[in-house]
Structure prediction request, 319 residues.
Amino acid sequence: MGPNLKGALLSLAAFGIYATHDVVIKFLGSDYSSFQIIFFSGLLGFPLITLMLMSDPTDGNLIPRHPWWSLIRALTAVSTGAAAFYAFSVLPLAQTYAILFAMPLLITLLAIPMLGEKVGIRRGLAVLVGLCGVLIVLRPGSADLSWGHAAALGAAVTGSINSLIVRKIGAAERSAVLMIWPMMASVFVTGATMPFVYVPMPLEHLALTGVIAGMGFIAAMLVIAAYRAAPAVIVAPMQYSQIIWAALYGSLFFDEHPDKWTIIGTGVIIASGIYIVLREGTSDASKNTPVLANKSRAETGLMPRISLLLKRGESQRGD
Prediction:
């Protein structure tokens, strides 16, 4: 098996697990707030991640060199998780994915003021076409929009900002600092909401929050293996396979059937996102490659970013 095929298959497996992870979120979201789901998933997943971070060989402490950027990033991670989990709970899976797939478009757009990125006419047109795809999915004026749609859009925006902050300060901060702050913020912020949103959970539902943490960890490890086997231009587009799982799971478990406008809009968004990924993969297109550097799904505070785990692994091998 060639490395490109291996990377593609590993990433397809990872995003299949991520899609199953989202089904569990949707199931629990019918009874519990997104803050409660994130809190318990974070608590159950935190010990394993902490053990990983304790093995970081880099000298230093956990005090960030860019405290304000680190604080903003931690808050955007919590906001992204809460908004995305809520969107999965109340919207059809395929529609939620379609909106979240706008992240590469927003990253490209926001990289202009945040990173000083220069976006050429071709990527600029791809962003414009992709945003038109979002409008096709939402159909403002002809379809009822809800807080779930606003939450999915908010998650796409905050997830994009989070990704760009990592690009902005990543070279100056220790990987452990970049990884631990959003996770700590997720546990503490969502924990603070428990007196207001907590609903008693039976043991099987509590176990499902552990399943969310476990699936997120396994999927992240598979994505890391995929990026080590194949280049980003092969692995990154595989995230769009989640829409296939969304259609399958939505039909099987939630009686969801995407309408033609959701299918058309999703196709437009995916085509635009893939074009941006391929364009960033050329030698003359971009200095910062913000979309390719993003590596995986939006950061929610439950798992460290894939790019940071990859960076940490490379530094360990270097030692």
Summary: Residues 3-29 form the longest helix (27 residues). The chain is about 75% helix and 0% strand. Residues 98 and 266 are 5 Å apart (CA to CA).
